[in-house]
Write a sequence for this structure.
C-alpha cells in the first residue's frame, strides 16, 4: 500500500460523511462571502433611498444569512470530525492487527516507534479529510467571491480570478519542503519515544550495572535531535503562514485600491465599493484556509507514509493451510536445520518428553527459538510439528500447538488476574510457577507493562500464564533468570509436576531446571555436541560444569 492509496482509501471509507460535510461547509463559506454582497445591496437599496420596505427585506435577508452561516458550520464540522475520529480508530486497529499478527512483521521498528505510528501518525493521517473538506469550502468561497466581483465589475473579478491562483502557486511551492521536514520530525519523535520505552523497561538493569548516566546522555542527544527537527518543521510552517498572510494582504490592498479609484470616478456605486472592499478583505480568509489545508495534507502525507510502511510490511513467516497435527508423533522434529548460527542441527522431542537445551552461545538459542516459532522461513533442513512440515501449518494451529514463552514477559494494564486470562487452576499454576506469594495480589492493579513488579515477578506471572494455556508443546526461554535460588528450585519442581506427561522444551543454564528434565541437549557452534541427563553431564563434562554449576 502506497501513501496515496492509504489517503484515498481513508476518504473513500467515509465518502458519505465527507461529501455531506464538504457541501455544508461550502454552504457556510458561500453565505460568509454573501455577507458583504448583502451589505452593499443594503446600502444601495435601503440606506441611499431611505425607503422602509427595502430596509425590512435587507434585515430579513441578513437574519437568514447568519442563521444559515452558524448552523452550516456546526453541521458540516460534525460530519467531518466524525469521519476523522472513526478513520483514526480504524487505522489504529489496522496497525495493532498488523503488529500482533502471529506471522510477525518485517518493519524493523521498535515498540516505541510502532506505538507512535499507531497513535500520533494515525491521527495525523486521518486529518487529510479535514484538509480536503476545508479546502473545498475555501474554494467555494473564492468562487462565490470572484463571481460577485465579476457581476460588480469584470476587470475587478478577473483580477481576483488571476491573482488567487498565482497566490496559491506561491503557497504550494513550500509544501514539498514542509512534507519532508514534517516526516523527519515525526521519525525523530518516534525514535525518541522508542528509546524512552526501552530505557524505562530496562531501568533496573541500567541502575544495576551503573549505566544510567550513559543512557540518560543518549536520551538527551536523541531528544535534542527531535527538538531540532521539530524547530525546522515549525520554521517552515511559520514561513508558509507568513507568505500566505503577506500575499493575501497585497491582494486585498490591490483590489481595494482599484475599487476605490472606480468609485471616485462613478464607475461603481458606494454599495458596490463596500461589497468589493468587503469581498477583498474576506478573500484573505479562504486563501489562508487553503494554506492551512495544504499544511494539514503535507503532515497527513508524511504520517500516511509511515503507516503504509507498517501496513504493507511483509510477514516474517508464511501462512500454511494444513491443520493436521498428530499428537502421537514427535511434536518437534528438526533434522539438518541451519539458520543463523545453527549448522545442520538435529533435535527430536518425543510425545510427553521434557528436554532441556543448554546453548553455550546465546545466538544459538535465539536462532533455535526463531525456527521453533516459525519466524525463520529462510532456514534449511526440515522442521516437523506433529508430523507436518512447519511451513505448511496454518498459523493459528501452530500457535495453539506450540507456545513460546520468552524470559522478557509482556504484561498489560489491568490486574494480575486479567493478565492470566483464566480462572481454572489459577492458584495451582501460580504455585507451580513459584508465584504463590502473589496469589493474594491477583486483583492488584498493574501499570503499563507491569513496571511496578520486579523482573522475577513478571517472569513468574508469564510462566503461570503459559502453564494455564496447557499447550501440547511448551517452549520456555530462561524462565528463571530473575529469581533467587530458592524460588528457582520451587519453580523447577512445580514445572516438572505441572508438565508431567506433556512435551516441554526449556532453553536454560539453570541446574535446577536441567535437573528436572528427562534429558539435556548441549549445543555449541550451532550443533549438538553432547546429550544425556543432567547429573551425568555435570559429572563428566568440564565445560558443561562450568556453564551450569553455581
Amino acid at each position: 500500500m502506497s501513501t496515496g492509496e492509504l489517503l484515498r482509501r481513508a476518504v473513500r471509507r467515509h465518502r458519505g460523511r465527507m461529501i455531506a460535510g464538504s457541501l455544508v461547509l461550502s454552504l457556510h463559506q458561500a453565505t460568509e462571502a454573501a455577507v458583504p454582497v448583502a451589505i452593499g445591496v443594503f446600502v444601495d437599496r435601503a440606506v441611499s433611498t431611505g425607503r422602509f420596505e427595502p430596509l425590512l427585506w435587507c434585515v430579513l435577508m441578513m437574519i437568514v444569512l447568519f442563521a444559515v452561516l452558524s448552523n452550516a458550520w456546526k453541521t458540516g464540522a460534525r460530519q467531518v470530525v466524525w469521519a476523522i475520529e472513526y478513520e483514526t480508530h480504524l487505522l489504529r486497529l489496522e496497525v495493532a492487527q498488523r503488529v500482533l499478527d502471529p506471522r510477525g512483521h518485517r518493519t524493523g521498528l521498535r515498540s516505541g516507534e510502532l506505538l507512535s505510528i499507531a497513535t500520533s501518525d494515525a491521527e495525523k493521517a486521518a486529518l487529510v479529510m479535514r484538509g480536503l473538506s476545508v479546502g473545498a469550502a475555501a474554494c467555494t468561497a473564492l468562487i462565490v467571491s470572484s463571481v460577485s466581483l465579476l457581476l460588480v465589475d469584470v476587470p475587478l473579478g478577473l483580477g481576483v480570478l488571476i491573482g488567487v491562483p498565482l497566490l496559491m502557486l506561491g503557497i504550494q511551492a513550500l509544501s514539498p519542503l514542509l512534507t519532508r521536514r514534517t516526516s523527519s520530525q515525526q521519525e525523530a519523535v518516534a525514535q525518541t519515544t522508542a528509546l524512552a520505552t526501552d530505557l524505562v523497561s530496562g531501568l533496573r538493569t541500567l541502575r544495576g550495572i551503573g549505566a544510567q548516566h550513559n543512557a540518560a546522555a543518549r536520551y538527551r542527544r536523541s531528544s535534542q535531535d527531535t527538538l531540532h527537527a521539530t524547530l525546522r518543521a515549525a520554521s517552515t510552517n511559520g514561513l508558509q503562514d507568513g507568505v500566505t498572510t503577506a500575499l493575501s494582504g497585497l491582494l486585498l490592498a490591490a483590489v481595494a485600491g482599484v475599487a476605490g479609484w472606480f468609485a471616485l470616478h462613478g464607475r461603481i456605486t458606494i454599495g458596490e465599493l463596500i461589497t468589493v472592499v468587503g469581498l477583498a478583505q474576506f478573500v484573505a480568509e479562504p486563501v489562508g484556509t487553503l494554506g492551512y489545508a495544504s499544511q494539514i495534507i503535507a503532515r497527513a502525507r508524511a504520517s500516511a507514509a509511515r503507516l503504509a510502511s507498517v501496513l504493507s510490511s511483509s510477514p516474517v513467516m508464511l501462512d500454511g493451510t494444513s491443520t493436521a497435527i498428530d499428537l502421537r508423533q514427535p511434536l518437534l522434529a528438526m533434522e539438518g536445520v541451519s539458520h543463523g548460527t545453527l549448522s545442520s542441527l538435529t533435535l527430536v522431542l518425543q510425545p510427553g518428553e521434557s528436554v532441556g537445551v543448554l546453548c553455550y552461545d546465546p545466538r544459538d538459542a535465539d536462532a533455535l527459538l526463531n525456527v521453533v516459532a516459525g519466524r525463520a522461513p529462510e532456514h534449511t533442513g526440515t522442521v516437523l510439528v506433529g508430523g507436518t512440515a512447519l511451513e505448511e501449518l496454518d498459523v493459528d494451529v501452530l500457535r495453539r500447538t506450540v507456545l513460546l514463552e520468552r524470559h522478557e514477559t509482556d504484561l498489560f494494564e489491568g490486574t494480575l488476574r486479567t493478565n492470566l486470562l483464566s480462572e481454572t487452576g489459577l492458584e495451582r499454576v501460580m504455585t507451580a510457577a513459584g508465584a504463590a506469594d502473589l496469589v493474594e495480589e491477583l486483583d492488584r492493579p498493574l501499570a503499563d507493562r507491569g513496571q511496578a513488579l520486579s523482573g522475577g515477578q513478571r517472569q513468574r506471572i508469564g510462566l503461570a500464564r503459559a502453564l494455564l494455556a496447557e499447550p501440547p508443546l511448551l517452549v520456555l526461554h530462561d524462565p528463571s533468570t530473575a529469581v533467587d535460588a530458592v524460588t528457582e528450585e520451587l519453580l523447577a519442581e512445580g514445572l516438572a509436576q505441572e508438565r508431567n506427561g506433556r512435551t516441554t522444551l526449556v532453553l536454560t543454564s539453570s541446574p535446577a531446571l536441567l535437573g528436572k528434565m528427562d534429558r539435556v541437549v548441549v549445543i555449541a557452534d550451532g550443533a549438538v555436541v553432547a546429550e544425556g541427563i543432567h547429573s551425568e553431564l555435570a559429572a563428566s563434562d568440564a565445560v558443561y560444569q562450568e556453564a551450569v554449576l553455581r
